[in-house]
Amino acid sequence: MGVLFSSGVLYFITVWDQRMPDNISNNVHRNDRLSFIQEVLRHPLQIGSIIPSSRFLERRIVETAKVGSADMVIELGPGTGGTTRAILDAMPAHARLLSIEINPHFQSLVDNIEDDRLISHLGSACDLKDIISGYALDEPNAIISGIPFSTMSRSIGTRIIEAVSESLAGHGRFVAYQLSNRVSDLCEPFLGNGDAATEFLNIPPMHIFHWEKR
Ligand SMILES: C[S@@+](CC[C@H](N)C(=O)[O-])C[C@H]1O[C@@H](n2cnc3c(N)ncnc32)[C@H](O)[C@@H]1O
């Protein structure tokens, strides 16, 4: 069953690569994709997606989060680091990025990214406030999350969203790319109603929700 699933996913990746020009498709290395699939088979609910985000989705995420004008950015769930590289590419030279990843294998991949602006932390988004204060960082202008709110308990999801809401700087943005709209329900009591869009050039198509802290 697992072999069939991985073969199907690899087929999709191959088709995806062939349909896109090299400069569009090669943002995540093939080894990273294989690592991603291996970890999905081990922890499907915790990862919540079948392959890393496409470059199209990465671009939508950094634009929606206004990363280009941020001083401090936090990423929850960087996975193999494709989204992390996209954020770093878009960030100003003086800005900082804290990435928080619960999976030790993924965190070690992100830790290999050579960029002085990046802090790669192994831990859970549940401990967001303690992690920020542990590094003595400023309030983030943007928090970007790929962690799957639809597969975690409501109490854990609420705890994470409450911490996101309390941590953000004024007018800071929370951007969550998700398969389901569960994150909207969780956010409403803390950040009100957000906006949503869909990126179809991703396998599978992904919703991008965002809120701005008032
Ligand atoms: C859908 S993947 C996104 C990966 C990558 N950012 C991308 O777009 O390709 C979700 C990631 O969130 C991580 N994750 C899940 N729960 C988490 C938590 N509570 N704290 C931190 N990371 C978590 C998973 O290990 C996985 O790497």
Please, how many domains? 1
Encode the helix/strand succession as letters.
HHHHHEHEHEHEHEHEE
Ligand set: S-adenosylmethionine
CATH fold type: Rossmann fold
Number of helices: 10
Please state the average pLDDT score: 90
CATH superfamily: Vaccinia Virus protein VP39
How far apart are the first and last residues' alpha carbons, in Å? 48 Å
CATH class reads: Alpha Beta
What's the architecture in CATH terms? Answer: 3-Layer(aba) Sandwich
Which residue ranges are poorly predicted, with pLDDT under 50 across at least 5 consecutive positions? 17-25
Task: Kindly report the spatial arrangement of strands forming the biggest sheet.
Answer: 3-2-1-4-5-7-6
Determine the structural class based on helices, strands and strand pairing: alpha/beta
Q: How many beta strands in the DSSP annotation?
A: 7
Largest sheet: 7 strands, mixed
Rg is 16 Å
- Strand proportion: 15-25%
Overall geometry: globular
Instruction: Tell me the helix content.
Output: 40-55%
Kindly describe this structure.
The chain is of the alpha/beta class. It has a single domain (55-212), classed as Rossmann fold, CATH 3.40.50. The protein is 45% helix and 18% strand. It is built from ten helices and seven strands. A seven-stranded mixed beta sheet has the order 3-2-1-4-5-7-6, with helices on both faces. The structure holds S-adenosylmethionine. S-adenosylmethionine (SAM) is lined by residues 46-49, 52-53, 76-79, 82-83, 100-103, 106, 124-126, 146-148.
